Amino acid sequence: MRVGVPKEIKVLENRVGLTPSSVREFVARGHTVEVEHDAGAGIGLHDDAYVAAGATIARSADAVFANADMIVKVKEPQPVECRRLRPGQILFTYLHLAPDPEQAKALIASGAICIAYETVTSPHGGLPLLAPMSEVAGRMAVQAGAFYLEKPHGGKGLLLGGVPGVAPGKVVILGGGVVGTHAAMIALGMGADVTVLDRNPEAMVALWKQFGPQLKTEFATRDAVERQVTRADLVIGGVLIPGASAPKLVTAAMVKKMPPGSVIVDVAIDQGGCCETSRPTTHADPTYVVDGVVHYCVANMPGGVPRTSTFALNNATLPFALALADKGWQGALAEDPHLRDGLNVAFGKVTCQPVAEALGYAFVDPRTLLQ
C-alpha cells in the first residue's frame, strides 16, 4: 500500500502522523511511504531521518494526497485537505465529527473511508487511540490552569499548591476517566485540594484505590456539580461520551457564580465542550474571559507538547495502521471489530451511530460495507 503523511496545517500544530521509526515498520512490510517536506521538522524529525527509514519526500501536500492509498494524520482534516480526498481513499486520523457538521459534510462528499482514532475501541471497553492524548491533555490541563491562575495571566493570583500556613487552591475535575485520572495525579502532586466528580461508581472506586483518601470523589448530580464548580479555583472538564457531543455539565449560570479570576480548562472542547460558555481556541490565542472567569479551551491541547504527543500517539496507532496497510481496510475491519468501531464515514455514508445521531444523518452499519 502507498501511505501518505502530510504536514499538519492546523494553527501551531507540530505533531506528525508517523515517526521515522514507524515508517521503517511499513517499509519492512513492503509498503511505500511518502512524507511531505518538513512534516516532522517542528519536533526535530527532519526529512533525512525519514529518508533513512525508507520514505520518499514529497514537495507538497497535493502530491501526498494524490499518490497515497491511505493518509495518516493527527488532527482532523482542514477544508483544503477534505477537498484533496478522493473516493475509496483511506483517512486515518482524529476526526471529532459530532460537534463539527461542516467537516462531516465535507468528508461525506469526498467519498473517502474515514477512520477516527477517537472511536476505535479495545476488548476491555477503553479507547486505546484516544487514551495517550487524553493522558497528555489531563496532565497539561493542570499546568495550564496553574499558569492562568497567576495574576499576570488573568487569574486571581493563586498558587495552586499553597504554602505552609496558606490553603491550597481548590481543583474540581469533571470526569474520572483518563483525562481526570491524569489531571488528579498532577494536581495532587502540586499539593492542591482536589475533587473528582463522576457518575460511574467503578471509576470512583478505581480513583480511591489509586490515590487514597487525599483525593475527594463525589457522585456527579446536578447539585454536586453546581456546588463544587461555584467554589472552585480551577475547573477541569474531562467528560466523554465516545463519538458524541460532550454533555453541558457547567451552565452559564454556574460560571457567573464562580470567583473572579478562577479558571476553566475544558479538555472536552474537541467534542464540543462540557461548559455552556466554552468555545474552541488555539495555542495562538488560548484564552478568553466570561463573567470574570478565564476560559482555556484549546481544541488540540497535546499539540502544545508535540514531540511527546507524537511518540505517544504512534505507540498506540502503529499496530492499527499496519493492519490497514497489510490487509486493506475491508480485511482489517472485518477481522477486528474494535478497529471497525473507528469507521465514521465511508463512501458518503455515516457509519458511527453517535455521530449520525448528533448530526442528524442516517446510520449505516459498517458491516454492510465489508461484504
Number of individual domains: 2
Tell me about the biggest sheet?
8 strands, mixed
Helix content: 25-40%
- Please give the alpha-carbon distance between the first and last residues: 21 Å
CATH architecture of the largest domain: 3-Layer(aba) Sandwich
Number of strands: 15
Topology order in helix (H) and strand (E) letters:
EHEHEHEHEHEHEHEHEHEHEEEHHEEH
Structural class: alpha/beta
Low-confidence stretches: none
Biggest sheet: strands side by side, in what order? 3-2-1-4-5-6-14-15
User: Which class of the largest domain in CATH terms?
Assistant: Alpha Beta
Task: Write the CATH homologous superfamily of the largest domain.
Answer: NAD(P)-binding Rossmann-like Domain
Q: What's the number of helices?
A: 13
